[in-house]
C-alpha cells in the first residue's frame, strides 16, 4: 500500500510539474504581436498599390503617404499571405509609423523583413521606437531580396511610435525601402524563464526518482 501511495504521489507531482513547464513554455513562445496589420493585408491593392495618408494603424509622418503594394511590382518575392508589403518611399523619402502602447521598463523585440526595390537605386532606412534609434548604422536594402531584421529595446512607456524612416540618398525618392511581416512582442521577464526552468527541473527530478523506485522494486 505504501508503494502505491508513493507512486501516486509522484504521478501527481509529475503532472503538476509538467503543467507548470508546458504552461510557462507556451506563454513564452506564443508572444502576442503588438503591431496591427504587420503583414499589410487589411487593404486590397488588386495586384497594384495604394497611397493614402493612413492605412489602418499605419500613418504617414511626413506627408509622403503610406504606400501598400503587391510585392511583385517592387521586384520582390511574396512573403505575406496577401502578397503585399509597405513601401516606405511613397511620394518621396517617406516616414511611416504606428503608435503602440508599451510598458515602461519592459524589453521588447521588433522584427521585420527589409528589402530594396529593383530600379530604385540606393536605399537606406532608419528604424525608431519613439525617440530611440534602434539601428546602429543605416539599413541598406538588398535589391530584389528580403533580409530579416531584429532589434531589442527597453520601452520608455506609454503610446510609442514604431517608425520606419527613409534616408535621403542618390536613389529615386519615391522608390524603395520595402518592409514586410512587422512584429513587436514583449520579452518574457527573467522570473518567467526561472519558473519554466524550475518546472522542467521538477519533471526531470520526478522521472529520476520514479526510475530509482522501479529498479528497486524489480530487484
Structure characteristics:
disordered N terminus; 2 helices; 219 residues; six-stranded antiparallel β-sheet; single chain; alpha+beta; seven-stranded antiparallel β-sheet
Task: Walk me through this protein's architecture.
- The protein is an alpha+beta fold and 219 residues long.
- The protein is elongated, with a radius of gyration of 24 Å.
- The chain is built from two helices and 13 strands; from the N terminus they run αβββββββββββββα.
- Helix content is 26%, strand content 33%.
- Strands 2, 3, 6, 8, 9, 10 and 12 form a seven-stranded antiparallel beta sheet that branches. Strands 1-4-5-13-7-11 form a six-stranded antiparallel beta sheet, with no helix packed on it.
- A hairpin with a 2-residue loop joins strand 8 and strand 9 (132-133).
- Helix 1 runs antiparallel to helix 2 (190-218).
- The longest helix has 29 residues, at 190-218.
